[in-house]
Structure formats: structure tokens, C-alpha cells
Amino acid sequence: MTDREAQDIDQRELERRLVHALARLVTRFSGAFGVPLADLVDLVQGAQLQVLRERGLTLGEIGRRMNVSERHTKRLLKQLRESFLDTEREYDLPVRIEFMLWAQPVSRARLKQVLQDEPAAIDAAVERLLADGRVVEDTSGRTPRLRPTTARQSLVRDTWMMRIGALNSFLGNLGDAVYGRFIDGTPDAFARTLNFLVRPEDVPALQRFFDEQLVPFATGLDEAAHERAA
Prior knowledge:
Helix content: 55-70%
Shape: globular
Radius of gyration: 21 Å
Low-confidence stretches: none
Distance between the termini: 32 Å
Largest sheet: 2 strands, antiparallel
Structural class: mainly alpha
Strand content: under 5%
């Protein structure tokens, strides 16, 4: 079905239905945890501020976009930093750096050019990756470059904060697919979910299939795409 054929509702209704569909997931968990509506509104405003800050907007521009005072915007930013950003950066930044290095080796200086995080935070994340043996620093060239220790890595870390970081990564990928399908009109943007039951004794076989067949196949596609873009 083309985008033209899909126009059975107008743009405004599409936007509202899309946000409503995504909001149902949020309210499913806020309801399960008994989060008061006022706290939920605060969390949503904080998330919106975070997204707008990542786009490079100033606090004044964010306040006008969100239709709130600059004082309220500063309060949200302080709350966001204290409750989420500082902790999330500690866990999410190493993962983002590792993903970047899968594409190609990168110098520390280049990381600081590309990433919007504080240079000190980037240095700390790199040192953590080096200490964990996730990456190595290749000093054979004129400029030292960081690269993964292997071509593929599992990013599973069994702590709650690591799980939240993995959830952020998963939802970010899903959000990219949703944005491509509904906003950018990219027909080949997709995310697929397979729901099926697995016996406990079959879990090792499923893990082997993922590690030995699916991941190498996907990695080959990714490498081919990077070679074409180079």
C-alpha cells in the first residue's frame, strides 16, 4: 500500500492516533505502578524537554514550544538531570559509543565531535569500555583509534540500570521505525515481532540460532550498507 492509498484519515487525526497508540504503552505501566496523574504529566514534560534539548533548542525555545514558563522549564531540566540524565548517561553512553565503533574505528576526538555529551563523560565511558575489555585502543596509526574487541558483542548486562539502558535502546530503534513509517513516509522502515512459545529445553538452540545464523546475517547486511555509503 502506498502512502497515497493510505490517506483514509487527515494528518491531524493521524498524529493524534499515533500519539494515543504510543501513550497507551506508557499509561499501561503508570497505571500498574499507581503513578499519580500529576507525576505522569511531570515525567512526560521532562521527556519532551529531553527530546527538544537533544535537537539543540534553547530553554527559551523549549518553553515556547511546550507553552510553559522559563522558570518551569528550568525546574524540569534540574529534575531531569538529577533523576535521569546523570544516571542514564553512565549506562547508556558506553553502549552508544560501542555501537558507533561497530561501524568503524573512531578516535576519541572524533567521538567528542559527533556525540553531544560532555567530553569528561565521554572519556569516562571510554575508560569503562576499556576496563571491561569491550574495546581496545589501536595505537599503530598516527591517530589512536578505538575499536571493538570482536566484530559482534552481546550488550546484555544483568543489572536493573543496564536493563533500563537496553530498554531505551530497544524503544529508540522501535521509535525510529515508527517515525520512518508514519512521519518520513519510508515504506521499507519496519520492525517485526514474532510471538511464539519455546520449551525450556529449546532455549539453548534458539540462542545458538540467534548467535550463529541471525546475527552474522544481519551483520553482513550492515557491513554491505556501510561499504556502499563509504
